[in-house]
Amino acid sequence: MTDKEFSSKAEKYIYSRDHFRKVAQHEFLKFNKDANLLVASINELVASLTLSISGKSFREIENGLYLADLMASFCRSHFIASDLLLGGELVEGAVIVRKQIELLARLNEITNGIDVDRLIRRTPNIKHLKSGLNRLYSDYSEISHSASPKAMELLGRKEYEQGTFTPLYPEFQENSYVSMQHLVMCALEYYVWAVNFFKDNFEAYDNAVDLLLFEKAFEQHEKIYTD
C-alpha cells in the first residue's frame, strides 16, 4: 500500500486503518447515488435539533440536567456512529446504535412521567419506543455482546483458496446500508421526541427549520430504502 516507514506497529496499523476506512466510505457513497444526501441531511437534522437549544437553561425543567445530558450524548454518539458505519466498522457502529436505542427509550421514560429514582441503574425499557426500533434491539445486543459467530460476520469475510478469513481492516459491505438505516431511524424518532419536548419547555422554539430538515431526511431515506 505504501513505502512509508513507521516508528511503531501501532502507527502502521492506524495509518492502514485510516486508508481502508477512506476507501470504504468512498464505496459506500458510490453504491447509491442518494447516499451522500441521506447522510448529510440526517446529520444536519441532529445538529440542528441540538444547537437549537444549546445554551438554554434546563433549570426549571424536571430532571432537566439528566435530559440535557442525554440529548448531548445522543448528538455526540450519532456522529461517531455515522463515521464508523461509513468507514465500514459495523460491529463498532452497532454498539453505538444499540446505545442510541436505549437512550431514546430512557428519554421517553422520563417524559412519560416515570419516577427517575425507579430508573436509576436500570436498563431503559424499549417498550417505550415509538417506532419499530424495539424489534431491532435483540439483534444489536447480540452484536454488542459478541454473543455469536453470526454477529461477528459483520466484520467482513475474505474468501481465498486457503479458506475464509476475517479482514483486519474495515471494508465496505452492503450491510452498511442496513446499519445506516437503523441509525437514521434513531434520528427520526429522536426528532419526534425532541420537537414535542422543545414545544413543551421552550416557548420561543420554532419548528419550521427542523421540520424541513426532517422532511428532507425522510425523503432521502425513502429514496434509498423503498426503491
The tally of helices reads: 9
Q: Could you report the average pLDDT, rounded to the nearest whole number? A: 94
As a percent range, the share of strand residues is under 5%
Q: What would you call the shape?
A: globular
Rg, alpha carbons: 20 Å
* Order of H and E elements: HHHHHHHEEHH
Within the largest sheet, what's the order of strands?
Answer: 1-2
Q: Catalogue the unreliable spans.
A: none
Report the sheet with the most strands, covering strand number, pairing sense and barrel closure.
Answer: 2 strands, antiparallel
How many β-strand runs?
Answer: 2
Percent helix: 55-70%
Distance between the termini: 37 Å
Q: Which structural class do you get from the secondary structure elements?
A: mainly alpha
